[in-house]
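Input.
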Amino acid sequence: VFQIMKETKDLQKLFQKTGIHAELFQEALGMPVNQCSATTIDEAHEIHNAARINSARRRAAFIRWSELSLKEILAATTFKEALEALERTPPNSEVERIALTRCIELCTTTEAIMSICDNTPDGSEAKRALLTKWNEISLRDVADAETHDEIVVAYDNALEGSAAKIAAFAKWIKLCKTIEAAHIAYDNAIEGSDAEKAALRKIYKLF
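Output.
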């Protein structure tokens, strides 16, 4: 055991000196590759991509890549940090799913939610959580909107068909002060809908 540890340590020093990964030496020397010596995500990623498909070296690098990515994800405290971690995870992995969930948890704006929506698998638990979070954030934005321009932005960013979208349109109508503004709201309403009728009533009132 001591000899193996010594050889592994020597190979790590050799990597530091030459830039050639220890796993390459292990394969060349016929030594078992049970672990990956990578200390960074980029290094583990590089070893993984350079290894032969279905090789022990590739599997070890994938495990190490996942471990290092998970550590980065759990340390994320902002959406930006979580998104950067997500982009560095092994694709189609459990760690990627965890990173996506963390991104959703840390979203505080509809812009952030929309930026990851297309990359969230339809029908997945993550997609359901994302849509729920999207509606919650939009409802907050609707409640916070105090001007016509603010409510228009909240309406545009709200999820189609959501409670937030309906609430945003109702407040939009309420904040319209001119026929021109109300007409724009009317143009955004679905033909024959209650929203369209509300916009028409507002136009009539402002005439």
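The two ends are 90 Å apart (CA to CA).
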